[in-house]
Amino acid sequence: MTLTLATTVPGEPEIFASLQGEGPSIGRPVAFVRLSRCNLACTWCDTAYTWHFEGDNRPHRDGVAFDRSANQVVLDETEVAARIAALGQSRLVITGGEPLLQGPALAKMLEHLDTIAPGMQVEIETNGTVRPTARLDVRVDQYNVSPKLPHSGNPATLALIPEMLDFWADDPRAFLKFVVSEPADLDEVTALIEAHRHPKDRVFVMPEGTDSITLRERERWLADAALERGLRMTDRLHIHLYGDTRGT
After folding, report:
1. Per residue in 208-228, pLDDT tens?
2. Within a domain: residue 248?
3. Residues placed in the known binding site for [4Fe-4S] cluster
4. So where does substrate get bound (predicted)?
5. How many Å separate Cα 78 from the centre of its chain?
6. Annotated binding residues for S-adenosyl-L-methionine, as ranges?
7. CA–CA dist 178, 106 (Å, integer)
8. In 5-140, which residue ranges form alpha helices assigned H by DSSP?
């Protein structure tokens, strides 16, 4: 099987070591692999090069359409596993795009990875709309689920599927992370987690932004709101350290 990955530069897959920048594992040293393709289209997406290719008319605030051949690379799952193992990390974050669109190939890759780097802990970052295959699910230690609120530009019928929100609420490995742009977004977060009975200790709110100034401005009011509502807040550490750049 093959996997379709994002690139750092044409032909070079986005597989790298860094500190996890968001959510429950923030600050941990990890290996990252970024896959290409997504079933949603967030207007503020900071990895639009994984899906907003020339000919895709879905809106994005930057108005940039990327050349598919320069921003995608297809690799055999054994090569992907070998590149991950070579980074020497004990934890892997699989991100995208939407990684669960490639569930069967991911499962094969992780099975091979387990033979060459046994004991690797695995996180998958997902928008929460795609159910993991059973063969993949047994190899995942943590899901970082980021349901997309209406300000993302996605219709709720695609982004906020009730049975999937229930599914993640029932999985103790799943942590929800909501991207927040303005205070009113917190009302939507609260309504969703109450309707689907998500434990608050597994719910994070995170400011939307791709530069430190924007993040800090939003964190000033978001911190008070998180405290008032009993929610966890997460920063975007990688933005402060490296900026909005690939491979970080």
Report:
1. 999 999 999 999 999 999 999
2. no
3. 38, 42, 45
4. 19-21, 34, 95
5. 23
6. 44-46, 97, 146-148
7. 25
8. 68-71, 77-86, 103-116, 134-137
State which amino acid sits at residue 65.
A
Give the pLDDT confidence of 152-176 residue by residue, as tens digits: 999 999 999 999 999 999 999 999 9
Backbone phi, psi, residue 6, to 5°: -75, 165
Binding residues for substrate: 19-21, 34, 95
Is the peptide bond preceding residue 97 cis, with omega within 30 degrees of 0?
Answer: yes
What is the DSSP-derived secondary structure letter of residue 89? -
Q: Is 112 inside any structural domain?
A: yes
| Total domains, the chain | 1
Residues at the annotated binding site for Mg(2+)? 47
What is the predicted pLDDT for the residue at 168? 98
Annotated binding residues, as ranges? 19-21, 34, 38, 42, 44-47, 95, 97, 146-148
Strand locations in 10-89 (E):
12-13, 15-19, 29-34, 72-76
Is residue 247 in a domain? Answer: no
List C-alpha distances in Å: 8 to 75, 80, 89, 161, 209: 14, 15, 20, 32, 21
Q: Which domain holds residue 152?
A: 2-242
Considering the domain boundaries, does residue 143 fall inside one?
A: yes
Q: Buried (b) or exposed (e) across 99-120, using 16+ Cβ within 10 A?
A: bbbbbebbbbbbebbeeebeeb
User: In Å, how far are 122, 150, 165, 168 from 33, measured between CA atoms?
Assistant: 11, 28, 25, 23
